[in-house]
Amino acid sequence: MRQVARQARAEGRSTGFVPTMGALHAGHLSLVRAARAESQQVIASIFVNPTQFAPNEDFQKYPRTFEADSKELEDAGVDYLFAPEPAEMYPQGFRTWVNVEGLSERLDGRSRPGHFRAVATVVLKLLEIVQPQRAFFGRKDTQQARIIRQMARDLHLDSEIVVCPIIREPDGLAMSSRNAYLNPKERRAATILFRALDGARISIARGERDALRLTAAMRDMISTEPLAELDFAELVDAETLEAVTRLRGVCLALLAVRIGTTRLVDNLLIEEREGEFQTTL
Ligand code: PAF
Question: Considering the domain boundaries, does residue 169 fall inside one?
Fold first, then answer.
């Protein structure tokens, strides 16, 4: 992989990089398309990063569909697939971690201590190996994208971090590899995240600016679904990830909800432009 990366840089060919944990869906393929549009070669990685799963989480059962994924990536025009083994990424004696302070402990970081430190570390390692001009991430994991952008800025990384739109199922459910865990009843219930965020979108379009009322309405909506257990519903500043009381600048409405044993996240982007608020699901 290093040899491929060095050669591309030496020949002045730009590389777009799509890091994944496999179990690919249309969201990942949209990142590949974005990478292809902006790069002369595309590299994807598949690495189910063990360190970003807590002992009680789903590392063992995380869907692994390597053969189908490789074929999809090839069909989508990916030039190289990097699929290292855990022992290559974390050789014996591994000790170095990257922590993006302040952003990593909030929201998902509260429910998943250590998760973002592990994500930042593995992404930095992958960027170091692949040496892309641009790396592509989905906005569904918006806190992850924010943390990676901060890390790239703070460490002067020579890769631009590009954040791409959320891809949704026809009924609004954000695409996620973890959707594969849902049984048919849970799959129907899982649309509650989209419905709650869509409710917030409609309220904002009608003039609601009070963050507490918006989050209360999202919580109420989640509580109508018997299979859903709310982890958090928050309205935060998109830069600091700190809670806001009124909409201003660029904000995010974020949800983390357990449907049965599956934890799902989703968000609504809210941007103030000339006094008007535009929302993107
Ligand atoms: O979003 C993911 O799939 C993972 O967190 C990532 C960025 C590939 C790091 O393991």
Answer: no
Residue 44 beta carbon below 6 angstroms from any ligand 1 atom = no
Kind and range of the H or E element at 256?
A: strand 250-259
Please count the CA atoms within 13 angstroms of the CA of 238 that sit on its side-chain side.
19
Measured distance CA(30)–CA(163) in Å, rounded: 11
Q: Catalytic residue positions?
A: 28
Indicate the number of domains in the chain. Answer: 2
pTM: 0.97
List the residue whose alpha carbon is closest to atom 9 of ligand 1: 119
**Residue 275: per-residue pLDDT:** 86
DSSP state of 178: G
Q: Quote the percentage of the chain above a pLDDT of 90.
A: 99
Is 230 found in the same domain as 108? no
Closest ligand 1 atom to residue 119 Cα is 9
Task: Evaluate whether residue 172 is within a structural domain.
Answer: no
Question: Is 123's C-beta closer than 6 angstroms to any atom of ligand 1?
Answer: yes
Range of the domain at 210: 177-276
